[in-house]
Write a structure and sequence with these properties.
Helix content: 40-55%
Oligomer: single chain
Shape: elongated
Largest sheet: 6 strands, parallel
Strand order of the largest sheet: 3-2-1-4-5-6
Number of helices: 12
Structural class: alpha/beta
Amino acid sequence: MNLRHRIYLVSILLGSVVVGGTAGFHFIEGWNWFDGFYMTLTTMTTIGYGEIHPLSHAGRVFNSFLIVVAVLSGGFTIATFSQALLQFEFTQVFGRRRMERELAQLNDHYIICGAGRVGRTVARELQTRGQHCVFIERDPQRAQWAIDQKFPVVIGSGSSEENLKQARIERAKGFVSAVGSDAENIYIILTARGFRSDLKIIARASEEEATSKLLRAGASQVLSPYTFVGNRIVQLLLRPNVLDFIDTAFGTERLDVEIGEVRIQAGSGLVGKSLGDPLFRQQAGVIVLGIKPADGTLVFNPAPEALIHPGDCLIVIGSDAHLKLLEGLASA
């Protein structure tokens, strides 16, 4: 029997003892209902105030059974609630320790400040792609949602240096500031950027005017849900087939197609080869959409004669297996 069922049983048992005792004194001794109820309570709690009216032999026999049942019920009640308290305390303690262990083991993870609708969507998408993430959330209800979904959570503000350290920002792969207030997002980004100058920080902007301020605060990129939705509506009106293709290929029930980026390492066998090289096309099996050299200049739809250099980032489209194959070829 689990704890919840035991608590239900205790409630029914105590209620039955009170009702039965009150009715017994009323019908056996002829007392009024309140006197019967009062006598039942004093008997159950073993206070020992004495009998409020003299008891007959039948009343004493009934009261003897009531004492035994009341003591057993009281013991069962105390044991049940003691177990509930201990279980709650142990759950809290071991839950915190488990969370601390998970946070200590984090590496190459993503930090999400804010477990609202945007933050939850980001976490789900990262999780489906095999990435690890941790929430920083000060609202207890939203933090509880993240805990229920098995995400590590730091309860508090994302602008706190202590909370960022607890979330292992020094080992994070990316940072998302998605709280509802633009002012709070600015404070969070300033604090995070103070820890890591190389960290990729994506911020959510509620107001259009906040975009420039968030970028000045240190955000790598700023997105507005409202602007995004507006642009998507326009695309649905003007280019519905393009969006249908994107949603089919990269949506929830996507095809085995993915757009990825692959960094070419110095010792890779692809260095010095052209994109049109038969070996590259046969082994990689991907379509190169663009090349971003080390200087940061993006070349869209590069020519087949374009050479591959160390440090280049290839933006490609292909199946998951082909992307993994290309990553292997790009490594040293």
